[in-house]
Amino acid sequence: MKVSKELSQSRMPTEHQPASNEAKLPAAEIPIEHDLDPGASVEQTPAGSLGRILPEATLARLTQYLRALGAMQARGEARTSSGVLATEAGVNPAILRKDLSLLGSYGTRGVGYAVTDLVEQISKAMGLLRQWRVAIIGAGNLGRALSGYGGFRSRGFEVVALLDSSPDVVGTTVGDLQVQDISDLDEIVAATNANIGVLSVPGAAAQDLCDMLVQCGVRSILSFAPVVLQVPAGVVLRKVDLATELQILAYHAQNLDS
Amino acid sequence: MKVSKELSQSRMPTEHQPASNEAKLPAAEIPIEHDLDPGASVEQTPAGSLGRILPEATLARLTQYLRALGAMQARGEARTSSGVLATEAGVNPAILRKDLSLLGSYGTRGVGYAVTDLVEQISKAMGLLRQWRVAIIGAGNLGRALSGYGGFRSRGFEVVALLDSSPDVVGTTVGDLQVQDISDLDEIVAATNANIGVLSVPGAAAQDLCDMLVQCGVRSILSFAPVVLQVPAGVVLRKVDLATELQILAYHAQNLDS
DNA sequence: GCTTGTGAACACCTTCACAGCG
DNA sequence: CGCTGTGAAGGTGTTCACAAGC
Asked: Where does NAD(+) bind (chains A, B) (predicted)?
């Protein structure tokens, strides 16, 4: 099956990471997409409503701050400073302060930041106070691994459905989820109110399934498929590419040896 | 030394990752993050030897070009142009030409590029002509999924070992690999000559296992653990952070809705 | 004193536009 | 004429260094 449909001339403002990175996987990334990979998809200023627009690079770091802050909370630390937090998150203190100032978050000069406060500010800015419901498309090895990944549930992400097209897999149980048939996607998305789709399917099938997700109203998609996907404006796509990550690693490894 | 980006980061690409990250995974983020990780140890331009230093962003794209070129080969196309290839890879034609010119690769003005030639040039520049042997640390869901991931074997990456610490898992068979005991890491790395390590272990165990890998002489590591890892200079670390990828996605999704 | 917040300098990437050349 | 290769321009992201303020 072919990858690109020549439909849309207009090139989406997508693409990583990078990840990079970005994933970004990368990245994807994822992600991310930084990419991962490389860069990730970005939307134009979404109406002036309330949105502060945060740079992609800042977003990636904010998640690291959240993690470090979580560890501090667990250790019972109430206050921290840009120096300490930056070390823990593995970044430069200056850019950490700049990131936080983008949120409008206030620290106290001469003192530092209140841990709980920061967690709240960052979570709010990143949209983590909502409950996100994830539908995983593709119950192969990766899809099953993702559905059981503890790191998701821990921060407001709930896997509400796991779908596949193969009759051999549909109906089997993975964790506490039963694999459902992809042809019921529409009803399942509606019933579960899933708002994030994860594509863990072979490259050849990815664009079609991506289109299906979009058609069902899912507007945020994380793809692990090793292909370039096209999505209409108004849909956010991030890509995590495992083969890409290894290849970039190979490049650096080669350079070390030479 | 810098630390991380995500996916991908790449940095994702991952990331990402950058992720990127991205990445970045982060990308397998290896990303992320991006992820991607940092410029890792800063290599001096190896003087005139042979090393061209390629920007991280270029590396991420080169892998996409490779993929698109592979599809062209499969379709029996012998020549292509920056316009066509760029579309297929989802990038701007100008930057594609710039990327390729960094390799010293020659196209023909007025004509385009020879597909097979480009594949060779890019593969060589990225170190993909060697055989890379991958040891996967952690035979949980993710580790098992990775060990069976077809995308690895397809471009010179061979999974030569799958290790775990749990007695329940050691000795079991995954695909055509038998899970080995992590305490034998040293011998296994020596016997298989593994030169890339993949960490698919819980965050709490990651730094220790990372250190073990380094001690055994593995100097290229791709980590899926949701923690910041420290490695000595001379070791390349990339990171793919799945939770980060989803969080960045959540941010964009929230912004769409508002 | 200490740490934050930020302007300015810097480095890196991307896009544009066109010269160069088959 | 068409397409590559690239200087120059434009962005974006990071680091530096210091003023502001508890």
From this structure: 138-143
pLDDT band with cut points at 50, 70 and 90 for residue B150: confident
Tokens 């993949």 — which residue?
A: B198
CATH topology match: A34-41+55-127 vs A130-258: no
Which bases of chain D come closer than 7 Å to a protein CB? 1-7, 12-17, 20-22
- Which residues of chain A lie closer than 8 angstroms to B238, CB-CB? 21, 26, 245, 248-249
Sign of CA dihedral B79, B81, B85, B87: negative
Q: Residue B162 pLDDT more than 50? A: yes
Q: Is A145 on the interface with B (CB under 8 A)?
A: yes
Most A CBs within 10 Å, among B12, B131, B144, to test the A interface = B12
- CATH architecture under which domain A34-41+55-127 falls: Orthogonal Bundle (1.10)
Task: Categorize the per-residue pLDDT at A127 as very low, low, confident or very high, splitting at 50, 70 and 90.
Answer: very high
Pick the CATH number of B54-129 from 1.10.10.10, 2.40.40.10, 3.30.565.10, 1.10.760.10: 1.10.10.10
* Structure confidence at residue A258 (pLDDT): 67
- Confidence (pLDDT) at A52: 67
- Comparing CA positions, the residue from B30, B95, B64 lying closest to residue A20 is B30
Nucleotides of C under 7 A from a protein CB: 1-7, 12-17, 20-22
Asked if omega into A124 is within 30° of 0 (cis), the reply is no
Considering only CB atoms, A37 lies closest to which of B22, B157, B236, namely B22
Fold of A130-258: Rossmann fold (3.40.50)
Distance to chain A for B78, nearest Cα, Å: 18
Domain ranges of chain A: 34-41+55-127, 130-258
User: Percentage of residues in chain A with pLDDT exceeding 70?
Assistant: 79
- At B114, phi and psi to the nearest 5? -85, 125
Read off the pLDDT of residues A22-47 as tens digits, 9 standing for 90 and up. 332 233 332 323 333 333 333 333 33
Q: Which residue of B has its CA nearest to A8?
A: B87
Q: Which residue did the predictor score with more confidence, B68 or A12?
A: B68
